[in-house]
Please model this.
Amino acid sequence: MSKPVILTGLRANNDLHIGNYFGALLPLIDMAKNRADEYEINLFVPDLHSFTTPIDHSTLYEQILHNVRLFAAAGLPLDHPNIHIYRQSYVPAHSELTWILDCFTGFGEMSRMTQFKDKSQKQASIDLANADDAEHHREVARELFRSTSVGLFNYPVLMAADILLYGATYVPVGDDQSQHLEFARDIAERMNSRFGELFTIPKPVKEQHEFFGKDQGLRIKDLVDPTKKMSKSDETGRGIIFLGDTPEAAAKKIMGATTDSVGLIHYDPQNQPGVTNLLQILALASSEPLDSVIDRFDGQTSYGALKEAVAGSLSQLLQGFQAKLSEVDEGALMAKLEADEKQMNETANATLLNVQKAVGLRI
Ligand code: ATP
Ligand code: MG
Model:
């Protein structure tokens, strides 16, 4: 019996920020290191998912490789035989299986995906809740049709293909992705009941949470608007610390971070989200327990001193990370990518061939 597969990807639509680093990249690498002896770990860059919403295509190729380097710089072991890294578009079976699954997927089924509804509306810069008359409704519908791509509409099908091609059992999903995982299970069951055992059914969301430990819910906040989370697709980037920021640029963003007029430092996410965020970042960047950071600063009056402490430890973190990034062995990394992509093509093509046979495209 081959080992069960854990599969996860990180979208490459921009440089990663410290929220992605502490909230996703480091936990993912820890998971890979801890589980690699008992599981196959598939870590992929979902590059075909990068432009379901508009991006700068002139930088995409380099961005994808950059993200692979980030994995290596953050400590992913490149020499473990059960850890596989690959670029989705280098395994054409993802696109081919997507088309076949598309033809067994309901239009209504995709229309109900909440993330599609949110993102398409955000892109059309409109809010259906404000559409209170019939003419406004029609205007909204027209704008949605103009600005939303079919790629955004059916990307859950591509995500299902990403999972099913490798028979992945475990896929860590946040709340925003659980509906898509449920869809992957539905389409796999639908195909299996119609054509026989084609796919391994991934575990349901609840079991995913039990397996990975429910997401701790870490959310680093935007520095300019600490009521919302740091997001790499945010337009201005002023409230975001990117892993590629110089220590000086990062310090400037920290010193300019929005705080409040309370005048006393407290860990209070509701009433003092800016100060709370700074305490959180300081704890993570300096690897000091949050409680002890809070003990040190609670009740103090100088926000400037807190900001300087945050800027100092972030500067060290960024310098250390960027040094590791510059030391990534490019030759070894490319060799690993290419070898893994070859191996993943074999696995994925075997699944695809079974499906092609089932639907009558091959004998
Ligand atoms: P986008 O704006 O493109 O959605 P994002 O910054 O929200 O970018 P995602 O690609 O959506 O990043 O998420 C990548 C991973 O990073 C996910 O596991 C997500 O939970 C985690 N993550 C994203 N933002 C934060 C944050 N501010 N704090 C902690 N973790 C985060
Ligand atoms: Mg996001």
The chain has a mean pLDDT of 93.
